[in-house]
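Marked as duplicate of an earlier ticket. Keeping the data here for the record.
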Amino acid sequence: MPKFDLKISLVIPVYNEQKHIAACLRAISKLDVIPYEVIVIDNLSTDKTVEVVKKYSFVTLIKEDTQGVVFARDRGFNYASGDIIGRIDADTILPPDWTAKVIEIFKDDAVQAVSGGLHFYDIGMNKVIDKVDKYWRAWMAKRMAPNNRIFLFGANMAIRKSAWMDVRSQVCHQRGFHEDLDLALHLSDEQKKVIFDPDLKANVSARRIDCRLIDLALYAFINPWTYIKHNAKEHRYMYPLILLIIINFLFLKMLFRAFDNQAQRFNLKKLLFGQSAVRVNPADFM
């Protein structure tokens, strides 16, 4: 098959995402290069997520009855029939050129998986936050590259279907792992090249910051823990960013709580009276 004919399957695991999935799917419908297939995996949602998804005729909706994003991810990746599997979250809003950039990246036969840069669309001072995030991801990627230990980020990544088939029997399914990092490390063990491309941008929510400090810390430290469990010494490059986030936790939470995403400005009323749904830790499942 010619390289420019690469087919992209877009996989989106969801659990109680009725407030975000519509915007995600609308953005997909406006991509310059429409994916070969769009697969949403419902992981036992109890809200109206499924009803919302069914409104989009181009989406294939499947169900995964085992709770946990890793199982939903597996179900979607195994179902996908494209050459490339794009993986995003329900709150990811893809820019129009995303699929075209993915195709261009995978014209390089050596590349087996890629993660890209982020824009946090629903938090104040996001231009500054984006720059800091970009700097640290590039800094980590540069230091992880020599041993091919570069991370993957589930809200903005893509992998060759053939690479997934080679490692799917090896990936970990126990609690306390971030499944995207775990996948990257198994690809590394099989000598499959993973890259970070800051130009492959996706718009993502900063809603993870809207929680208790202890919950955020526990979530963040699963990143190096996943690397430690794989005997990957590159875990040491993750601590500076984790520390920076923890130190600035209250400020970042305030920036998120006070920001009106629709109006793209601060709203004192939202800060004082706004309520956010508690997010499930994707590494914690039954």
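See parent ticket for discussion. The mean pLDDT is 93.
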